Every structure is written in C-alpha cells, then in structure tokens.
Amino acid sequence: MRYAMVIDTKKCVGCSDCVVACQTENNVPIGYCRDWITERVEGAYPILELELRSERCNHCENAPCVRCCPTGASHIIEGGIVLVTPDECIGCGACIESCPYDARYQHPDGYVDKCTFCHHRLEKGQLPACVSVCPTKCMYFGDLDNPNSEVSQLLKARKHKTLAPEAGTKPHVYYLI
Amino acid sequence: MEEELFTSGRNLPNIDPSLQIWHWPISVYLFLGGLAAGLLFFAAVFTVIKKEEETPATVKYAVMIAPIALVLGLLALFYDLTHKIFFWQLYTTVRIESPMSWGAWVLLIITPLSMLWVFSYWKEVFPKMDLKFGFLKKFQAFVVKNRMNMAYVLIPLSIVLGIYTGILLSAFNARPLWNNAILGPLFLVSGLSTAAATIILFSKSKSERSLFSKIDIVLIVIELALIVHMIMGYWAGSEVQLEAMQLLTNGEFTVMFFVFVVILGLLLPGLLEILELKGYKVPVVVPAILILIGGLVFRFVMVEAGQLTRYLY
Prior knowledge:
The complex is a heterodimer.
Chain A: E1 3-8, H1 17-25, E2 36-44, E3 47-55, H2 64-68, E4 74-77, E5 81-84, H3 94-98, E6 105-106, E7 112-113, H4 119-122, H5 129-133, E8 139-143, H6 150-157, E9 160-161, E10 173-176
Parallel strand pairs in A: 1-10
Antiparallel strand pairs in A: 1-8, 2-3, 4-5, 6-7, 9-10
Chain B: E1 3-8, H1 24-48, H2 56-61, H3 65-80, H4 99-120, H5 122-125, H6 134-145, H7 147-170, H8 183-202, H9 206-235, H10 239-249, H11 254-277, H12 285-306
Helix pairs in contact in B: 1-3, 1-7, 1-8, 1-12, 3-4, 4-6, 4-7, 7-8, 8-9, 8-12, 9-10, 9-11, 10-11, 11-12
C-alpha cells in the first residue's frame, strides 16, 4: 500500500474549498492551515502562463522531517503517511526547518501539526476531506501500489511533476500538468 | 523581460513569508555549546599530555565557564521548545539519524562531566572554601583520581559537541545556506577559537597566554580557510545555494558577516595576536573579546540567514 494524491493543475480553479474543508474536518486553529493554494504566473507579458494548485504535506518517502526528529514523534505509518504524535513532540522545530515545502506549523498548543492525508477518514473508507469536497474534482487519492487505481492510471496517462524533486524527498503528491 | 510572479494563499505564523522558527536562544546556545566544547577539549588535551602545571587557566580556571555555558545553553534550548512539558521524550529514544538526538544525549553526559571536572579542582581554585562533609571530601578524592579518565572521555565528547552545533544546521537540506558539509568543522574550529580566547582572558601566565595566542592564530587561519571553502561551495552549487550565498556576499547579512565576523571577529584579532607575539604592546583582552563577539555574531548570522533560504518550486 502506498497512498498518493494526484492533483490536476489544469482543472484546479483555486477556490480554496479544500483549505476550508481541511480546516473544518481537522479542527485546524484559526489563522493556520494544513493545505493551501499556490498561484504561479510565469512568463513575459503578454505571453503568461498560470498554474493553480493545492499544496500540502507531500508524505515523502525519504522524509527529512522524520529523519531529523529527535524523539520519533514524526513517523511514517502503513501506506506511507507521515504523522506526528503530539505527546511525543517537544516542539523543537527541527522538522519545520527540515521541510522543503514548509508544510508543518507549530500548533498554538505547542506541538507540530500538519496534513495527515485524513487518515482517520481513510480508516472508515472515506476520502481525505479536501479530495471529497473539490468542486472541479481535480483531486484524486488512492494506492500507487495498485496499478489499476485511479491515481496509478492517471500518472500512467498524463504528464506530471512533483514539487522540488531535487530536494531528494520523493514526494507523494503529484501534479498533472 | 522575463517576469515571474509567485503567490501563495497561505500565511502561517512564523513560517510565512520566511521561517522564524528558531530564534535568538538557538544562536546563543550554538555559541555557548561551541565555547564549552572548546574549553573542555583544551582542558582534557592539556591534562592528557600532562601539561597541567604550565596551563593552569586551561585546566582549572577558564574551564569553570564550561558548565555555566552548558547550563545556560540548555536553558536557552528549553526556552525555545514550544511543547516544553514533553522535553523528556528526548531521552526515551536514541535516533541515530537525528543530529538533535545526538546532541541531547551528548549534553546529558558532558554537562555533569564538566561539573565534575570543575569539582575536581575545587580545593585548588577555592582553597578557603572547605568542603564541610566527609563524603564530599571522599567524593572529591575519587573525582581527582579519575581526572585522567574523564579527560579521555571528554576529548571525543567535546569534539562531537563542537561539530554537532554545526551539523544541527547542515543536516537540513531544505535550507540551502545551512546545507553544506563544512559547517560542522567550521563551528568546531570557531568554538575552539572562542575557547582559546576565553583561556587568554583567564590566564595570568605569560607563557600560557602566548601559547594560546599561537593556537588561536592557527585556528583563525583554519576558520578563514573553511569560510572561503564554504563560499566556494555555494558558488559552485545550484541556484538555491547561489541565492543563499547572496545573503552573505551581497545582501541583507553582508555587513554583519564581513564586518563583524570576518574582519572584526577574525582578521583584526588575528593580526593583533600576531603583533602581540612580535612584542608590540597590545592588551590581550582586545583580540580575545573581538573573537568572542565575532563567534556569537557568526551564530546569529547563520541561524537567521539560513531560515530565509529555501527551495524554489
């Protein structure tokens, strides 16, 4: 089992529904977010290119946050999901410094918090909150180890990228381009 | 003209627009940790080579700063934790891959060891303060007897502590300014240099002062060479490293780095120490204090500037 998220940048309109859904589902404190929208405009006027995408923890295979955590609070569970155990986290900030995606933040209660791929929903057979609410259905979630899963099929058929692959983290959030 | 606009719909406290997760306590700790490592290293080395008589400040007096620096440094680290009541979780596991775990364990051993070291010289440093209890006297005799053993343990531990203060930063590849292999040795050498400066401040013997001036000059030369290597490393690196280098060579931290660290913290005190050895009258306090300030500013520059650097995607 290897969970992955695939996000179609051609279909994303940047509405931030995924952000709000996540904040509601996971009781994210006001002023914080576990996922966010990035809008990137590139090129020289008048030939400009726009990319909209929803970003979050990439649940890296080679996760620097897990490597540098001094207590083991950051860990990887079945399916490759990177999680933080609040009662083991001392709030040293090493994982935040180590993340090339700045996907972690210090929760007002002190521990470090981040996207969990909604693993509490996955256990009930539901999709992550962000995926389930996307109005343009630009987000897909599934098992990369299963060649017939929607995500595997999409990655086979479409051109795609990951963010900052040069950081060597082997991210598992893919963007269709 | 190539235009590029990058906007993110995110505004996380202490993370956007640039990271401010590690504050001044971390810089102060890195300085104090390096200083303590250097002091303990010199005290242990001069004990092992049986030169205690010639270097009283090294083995007895300046080294008293080490436990104080370590305790203050640990307090600073603790202060910077945001989930403080769980700090003991550090000592429930050994994480080989995590520099911070290494540091936590080394500090757990080296801090009491540094106190024992100072205690072993108690009678000589404070001859008028009598240890009132018999068991304390017995314990002191035991510590004095084992001083050589402590020295053998302290040499590797102090080197690990000194290098770890740099590796703590260099292990993060997400921060291109920190992510270079030189930072560990560089912080070690800088820590040794600040320790040599402290010993010079404490020493009353001319021969010991001139010995540590010579040691310090060598350390300064090595440190300058390592800084050149570090810059060359960025220069030959990828785009993110080039951008990181700009902060030091042509940006926000250039004055801090070149004026306070390189010129006032290394070149000038090195020159003053050479002049002093040549027989010119230079108060030794001046280069020593410049080195200490330079070492502290260097930690601040690296911690603050590093958090401004990141991957571009």
